[in-house]
Amino acid sequence: MKYVDEYRDAAIVRKLSGAIAEATTKPWTIMEICGGQTHAIVKFGLDELLPRGITLVHGPGCPVCVTSAELIDHAVELAVMQGVVLCSFGDMLRVPGNTVDLLTAKARGGDVRVVYSPLDAVTLARENPSKQVVFFAVGFETTAPANAMSVLLAEREGLKNFSILTSHVLVPPAMRAILGSPDNRVQGFLAAGHVCTIMGIGEYGPITRAYRAPIIITGFEPVDILEGILLCVRQLESGRAEVENAYSRAVRPEGNLHARKVVEQVFQVSDRDWRGIGVIPQSGLSVRERYASFDANTRFILSASKGNLAGECISGEIMRGVKKPHDCPAFGTRCNPERPLGAPMVSSEGACAAYYRYRSRSAEAVAAR
Question: How many domains in the chain?
Fold first, then answer.
């Protein structure tokens, strides 16, 4: 397939892995921030092509994984309310809250609908004026424009029965939190190309300067990722720390100005509680007061926070790059896709799900040890 096959070319992959080996004289730890990149790395075995000195760790770039248990509890609470339709993307249904997940709430009679776009939820609100329709708005900067547009569309149509339960998070503050942590191992980042397609690259320069950590903006195919690793290693080896755009076919320095304007119109930056990590200041988006009537937290009276009861799940350490999925004693045994202890095992971008699905050390092998 044109524009895909050339980024999976085996000869180019071998050439890049060889170049990385030649460039590496010291051990380095690099974090890919995006869960989509994590799945590509594990699926194609890219980490196994790298020299021993290069360690890849997996970041918090899975929006499902970092959505707090408290917000899932609120979504469950809304789903079982009389006259409320809770709309969500499918990968949120199996993520456990502090009590149950949305799939269990649906089985118990809650009105939970899987949609493919927030605009589908607006359509449901239009077609069901007697019901309150709430869209569970989860995501990084990539999904924020569409969620903002759903609010603007509902306002334009005068829909009084549509609102969003917001769980938007931002990448740059998470990078700062990781680099500033006392147990940080990360020396360089592969940044998510689709986030930068929306927001541009301007926010990353101050991070590279403050923490002396190079940031390479990359895509999601094997050639993209290996090229990003090569550029990162070259910077680390030479003592440089800069932002490099290795995904210029999609990312412009300024991003998508129209999308950014829509996001800024509807949302404002706020503190956000990241599941397994904790509250990161100014790392989320919340609905502006002007659009408070479309904010489910304002429209409905929801229970007080129960915190995030993580139990034995070590997802926070995995998403900060301190540990890997196989370091969890529950991996593949007490925690598996059928009975997940945490979101990374069931999310389509979760690191634990990637290891469970693609690594040769399968759940059966883990269970037999």
Answer: 2
Residues 219 and 351 in one domain: no
Strands (E), the chain: 28-34, 54-61, 84-88, 112-114, 132-139, 162-169, 188-192, 215-218, 243-245, 267-274, 278-287
**Cα atoms found within 13 Å of the Cα of residue 248, Cβ hemisphere only:** 5
**Exposed, middle or buried, 364 (CB in 10 Å: 0-12/13-18/19+)?**
exposed
CB atoms under 10 Å from CB of 111, counted, come to 18
Same domain flag for 243 and 335: no
Q: pLDDT tens digit string along 94-131? A: 988 888 999 999 999 999 999 999 999 999 999 999 99
Report how far residue 357's alpha carbon sits from residue 128's, in angstroms, rounded to the nearest whole number: 40
pTM: 0.92
What token pair was written down for 115? 């949609």
Please give the residue range of the domain that contains residue 330. 325-368
CA atoms within 13 A on the CB side of 179: 23
Where does the pLDDT of residue 368 fall: very low under 50, low under 70, confident under 90, or very high at 90 and above? very low
Give yes or no: residues 320 and 332 share one domain: no
Q: pLDDT class for 366, splitting at 50, 70, 90?
A: very low
Do residue 313 and residue 331 come from a single domain? no
DSSP lists the bridge partners of residue 84 as: 132
